[in-house]
Amino acid sequence: NPFDRFAWALDPHEFTGDPTKIVRLVAALTYRRRDARSDDFFDNTARSYLVLLVKILQSIKKDAWGWRTFYHLATSYDLLERVVKASPLGRAKAGSIVKKTFAGVVATIDSWLSEYESAFACWERSPKLSLERFLRGRGILIVSAPEDQIEVLRQIARLVLRVVKDRLLADTGRDPRSS
Length: 179
Fold this sequence. Notes:
Layout: E1 9-10, H1 19-29, H2 40-61, H3 67-74, H4 77-86, H5 91-94, H6 99-113, H7 117-125, E2 128-129, H8 131-136, H9 150-171
Parallel strand pairs: 1-2
């Protein structure tokens, strides 16, 4: 529960170690039930920009970026455009940016991530939870959320549990993908 004064923050780097983890993180943050108003083009393009942004942050700042940095860069048209254009990873994609379309993509990203803004702010100030250290210890992980934030944080909780499951299975020598 990011709003509890005893809360530990989820470290974004726990979820970005390889491209598959990055895609899972973005899928969790952008999960929405499909409805008649969903636009696959904007949804898929927005997700691809979020994946690219995480890869760029990982290549530039390694473990020095946090949830707030991610949020502010992803939801600002000017900042996201500058980061994508300035990075060797993003230059190819930056060449095809059409102003009006990119504005729609950033608006889509903003509509998804705005639900997490306060949680990201709380996580930025809280001590970081190391899942690796937790799994080596004998602790209990309680994943909770305020009643009005349950739907928003449910996908993050699922992602945390999946990462824990994958690491436990990897420790036993079993392939996490087969479970």
